[in-house]
Amino acid sequence: VGVRSFVGPIVKRPVSLRLASTLVFLESSKDGKIVQSSLSALSAAEQLGNPIKALFAGSHSTKAAEQLKLGFSTSLVDQIIVANNEVYDNYLPEAVTPLCLELLKDNEFSHFVVASSAVGKNFLPRVGALLDYQPVCDITKIVDSTTFVRPIYAGNALATVQCTQEKKLISVRASSFPACGAGSFEAPIIEAPQVPISELGAKWESENLVKSARPDLGSADKVVSGGRGLKNKETFDKLITPLADSISAAIGATRAAVDSGFCENSLQIGQTGKVIAPDLYIGVGVSGAIQHLAGMKDSKVIVAINSDQEAPIFQVADFGLVGDLNEIVPELTKKLSK
Ligand code: FAD
Q1: Rounded CA gap, 249 and 142, in Å?
Q2: How far is the CA of 325 from the centre of ligand 1 (A)?
Q3: Which of 37, 221, 306, 335 lies 20 to 30 angstroms, CA to CA, from 133?
Q4: For each successive 10 residues of the chain (338 residues), what is the average pLDDT?
């Protein structure tokens, strides 16, 4: 349905100027703070080069819109649309989708951009299905306004996708785009059209957030990740926590470590966990299975500590320490703490 992958030279098509305009959906927390992945989605939207309208939904939308104007620098956002209605709080796809459909129904927007977050992944397919457009998901690069790069096969191959649909619905892998920078800009804040919302068919019950003083794994610039080589939860806590503390890093883990009960599953990195690209990733007792690499191989500097010098993690590591983690990690922590 209008999206095709190909290998070979990219044929650039001119985009109809009438349609060259982008709507970007930005998530914010209840206190109006814009979430990091949405700031990356906004900077990706800027790369498209079109005028941008930013959309906030939820009872905190105006606060978030003010924070965007006063806290961030963007030259292309010419309007901020706010849908100040508590029905959008928690971003239930049943509620958010009709709002997006209302804004996307005519020809105003050529591109609709969301972060590839839990929220974006939840409602973008629904918007696509109802508009009969196929979304281009989890893009890591914008080649031009119709051509995008996205990982396939758990990150083992990159597909260059040309989207010939009139509207391009795009979700953005946050770790592949820098968050838009600090600054301020002027743009009018306008109310979104009222969308009649009948029976949603779904109800928000509650959320159970893990509170931590540590940097958030998804956006931290340093991550220490523990694997099955740590053998048990006690060693995980005894070695990984002080090492992470010594460099103010977030803690991550492999699925094997999570499944073995060493730590909670929100720390899982990989194909079925979080995708991260910190400045520094330290893997301790991590073999480097492809499903784990899918979540961390874009890290800027990778350090691996493993007793098996043939472990696949060393193929992607910038620095490798071959040896027993029980000896190496305490020594490293001591040196880093100085
Ligand atoms: P292992 O592969 O067992 O590696 C442990 C390593 O520790 C070994 O290399 C060993 O040499 C080293 N070691 C042992 N003792 C010591 C010591 N004393 N000192 C130093 N080193 C030591 N995995 C993920 O991580 N994330 C995912 O999202 C994910 N999704 C998956 C999805 C699917 C559909 C499937 C099938 C699998 C998925 N996996 C995922 C699992 C993945 O295939 C691997 O099983 C897992 O990543 C292995 O974790 P590990 O490196 O901790 O364990």
Answers
A1: 30
A2: 15
A3: 37
A4: 45 48 95 93 96 97 96 94 95 96 94 96 96 96 96 88 96 92 94 87 85 85 97 98 96 98 95 92 97 93 98 97 98 94
225 to each of 58, 175, 233, 291, how far by Cα in Å?
35, 17, 13, 14
CA dihedral 83, 89, 94, 100 (to 10 degrees): 30
For residue 284, count other CB atoms closer than 10 A to its CB. 26
Contacts of 284 (CB under 8 A, 6+ apart): 224, 225, 226, 227, 229, 230, 239, 240, 243, 305, 325, 329
Distance from C-alpha of 290 to C-alpha of 311, rounded to nearest angstrom? 12
The residues facing 160 across adjacent strands are 6, 149
pTM: predicted TM-score of the whole model, two decimal places = 0.81
**Does ipTM come in above 0.95?**
yes
Residues 51, 78 contacting (CB under 8 angstroms): yes
Write down the H helix ranges in the chain. Answer: 36-47, 61-71, 93-104, 118-131, 233-235, 241-246, 255-259, 290-296, 313-316, 325-337
Pocket, ligand 1, Cβ cutoff 6 A:
227-229, 254-257, 268-273, 285-287, 289, 291-292, 295, 306-308, 311, 324-326
Q: Which two tokens stand for residue 318?
A: 């910038």
Q: Which residues pair with 303 in a beta bridge?
A: 282, 319
Which atom of ligand 1 is nearest to 268's Cα? 26
